[in-house]
# Entry
Amino acid sequence: MCGIIGVTGADDAREVLLEGLERLEYRGYDSAGIALVDADGISRIRIADGTHSVALLREPARALDRGQRAGIGHNRWATHGQPSERNAHPHVDCSGDIVLVHNGIVENYAELAAGLRQRGHEFRSDTDTEVFVHLIEEQMQQGSDLVSSLRNVLQKVRGTFGLGVMSIKDPELLVAARRVSPLVIGVSGEATYLASDIPAILEHTREIIALDDDQIAQLRPNSVVIETLEGEPITPRLRTIAWDVEAAQKGGFEDFMSKEIDEQPTAIADTLRGRIDGDGRIVLDQLDLSDEELRKITHVSVVACGSSFHAGLVAKYALEHWARLPVEVDIASEFRYRDPVLHDTSLVIGVSQSGETVDTLQALRQAASSGAKVIVVSNVVDSSMAREADGVLYTHAGPEIGVAATKTVVAQIVALELLGLRLAQVRGTLTPEEVATQVAALRAMPDIVADAITRNDDVQKVAEAVNDAKDFFFLGRHAGYPTALEGALKLKEISYLHAEGYPGGELKHGPLAVIEPGCVVVAVASSGPLQEKMLSNVAEVKARGATVILVVDDGDEEASAQGDFVLSVPPAPALLAPLKDIVALQQFAYHLARGRGLDVDRPRNLAKTVTVE
Ligand code: G6P
# Structure
């Protein structure tokens, strides 16, 4: 999510770091920092000024330069601790001799930090990352070198990491390690580079080694040694990158939308990470609502816009079923101008990937003034909504560049469903066994969604078969209804085709009058409580000549037989099914738009963040 750059052996390490951070800016970030390293010490500068941070580093960084040839830098996208200078990377240990940058999440950081504090370490940030430098410091004080120290520390850490670390004891050595968070190494013969993303180093070298999970690398100006975390040697695989910088920013994908569709399993896994403890308790530590307060809630109101509204609608089915609370879901621009009935036992949840959408922000302000508890589901740490709300539930989808939301939506559904399970837990509406079943089902979703993504070529064929159609109706029932709404929204946003989403049961109350040959009906008919009724709706549109595309679970021959075309998806429990059914509809919209030669990342007339009414 964040950006890492590192170098050893450069003529001008400062410039390599600053340019690298500029190349990583496209991902979005809130703060930045660099540290130059030589035997005399670590010179560090950090700035937290949103997307201006790298530009602002340039001037003060000049003063740090005394010809150092090595260093590390970082663009931060906050996950633990607000965006601020003190939380920006690189972080240093108490002695100031060790410096480190990190992408990922340390799940057990609270426990590790408590131990370190007891042993006298002084923390200078609110980040989970800082535990690494202090743990390495302890190891080095006992005589270990940097590599063995890091190896030992990684055994104590639960979570994900892509990290670069240096010490003034051996200032030419840059040590890197990876679990889940990507890292690449670039070699040029004179200098060796480290980055979280290829574009950061592409202007220096096209010879790249991708570090794999659970590997540790020792980078020196003209050598790279890679081992497993257990110390087994690895023969590095060098590949030559032919892409230009823009293609590299997309990681080899044609556009950001397809890259972000592909990142959905990680977005789900990262949003779940660290939120279910060993006893199966859902831990949402930034929610700031006690069990007592959660028990007092009598009604829930979700407010959101666009795709975030659809995530809220999916959550309604789950929250009502699991926590037995009445849940309303409102479009924020409607909520703020009516006179909603709220009291101090109401929980109002704003859902917004940006945390800045003006209608949602205003709706939450209004809710707060009526005494309701206000929480926010946001993908941006310390966004306006996050700052003002009583509590926050962050999604960890990473920055989303494509205007039409994809990975942030599935992350929002997961975050809201975790909240639903937490409410059910404290209110006793589900037994511990029932919660455990749901938790296991949620934990299986990254793999199921990854499986759904592999159907891309089949989805493309179906999209090509209906390329000439002008009218699309998306039907769904139960949690498949918001899925249908999201499918219709994705299609209209990026293909500019007429698309409407309806609950299947409403067909007879209007839409059926419009159905005629040439219309395409996409029906979400994956197995669920209302599948049979959905298929009756399908029969009605077929009888009127519509072309029918069915989203069905693998192996459901009976349902498949009723469609002209089928988008097969792996099965999942009904309340989680939107997470994988949405994937098929995202890909369907994507291929229709691409087939029409359109820019899927920047649809006409639309903006990523809408800060005007
Ligand atoms: C814009 C974006 C949508 C997004 C909506 C709500 O319309 O194009 O993708 O769903 O805003 O944004 P939010 O940041 O509040 O989730």
